[in-house]
Amino acid sequence: MSASGFTNPFASRFIRIFVMTALMSPTFCLAQTAYTDKGLGSAWGRVLRAGDDRPIRHARVEFLIPSSGWSSFKLTDGDGKFNLVGLSQATYQVTVTEPGYERLDGTAEIAGKTGPLLLRLRKMEVAATPRNDSVVSVQEMRTPGKAQKAFEKGAKLLLRGDAAGSLAYFDQAIANDSTYYRAYYDKGLALFRLGHTAEAERAFQKAIDLTSGGYAPADFLMGLILCQTRQFLQAEAVIQKGLEFDPGSALGKVFLGWAQFALNRLAEAERSAQQALFRKSNLPEAYFLLAQIHHAQHNSSAVVSDLQAYFRLDPNGPESGDARTLLATAQRETN
Length: 335
Prior knowledge:
Number of helices: 13
Radius of gyration: 21 Å
CATH superfamily of the largest domain: Tetratricopeptide repeat domain
Largest sheet: 4 strands, antiparallel
Number of domains: 2
CATH class of the largest domain: Mainly Alpha
Mean pLDDT: 80
Helix content: 40-55%
Shape: globular
Oligomer: single chain
């Protein structure tokens, strides 16, 4: 694939297959890397509502090392408590989010067992939309029963591969609740699978508008559509926006890497791929991206290493044919 042109048919195939197999998983936004350091650092505390110190349940507390991209998070329990273990001694970027509250950003120096950390969130006048599906959204609690049932029927059909059949149910859900951002998002997935890219783009944009850009999967999908239409700078910006809301997403980092690769910014693309592997070390798509980057850099030995890792994780994956061709080329060049 040409780094500057992004014209190889592989790009379209990769995006379609990768999107359908990865983004339809309900755990898409929850990927995180298993920590292997034997350090004993930890952080514990509570998330409370500013003003009356009432505990906030299911708030998302994330600790991120900006230099490496490694992250870990916990959801608070019924008493607002969280406890993250296995943290190395470092300075972490701390982000706390909960629908209906202002986002809290700060830093924490971890040296051994650190706590208690008391993190207070301010209530928003208008409830915010969740950034992922790890918590029950304010919207879903108020969504009319007919809309919810229609959405669930559509989602089941889409997961079974019946994209065409799912559309009527997503439209029914939207007709019953015009603010149902998940229905717009899943409708976009169905349209994308059916090849209706322009309509899918409109559906994803509606999901983005309804959440003020706060639903990361919609940002990522919009970025990939922009890549298909060769609007790479716009794609990079939209994917970066999604990563602001879900900085722990390994797949988001892979998507960002493809946009940067298309812009021929190989060093940045390589860094994004490596950060994806910090988050999820067994992600074959990240190794495939690294192989493409190293091939563009004429680093054949690195290509061989990347693709060997790819095949260990996914020997019969959707891009295994392209991977074998590239591996054979790289092996000839290293001999």
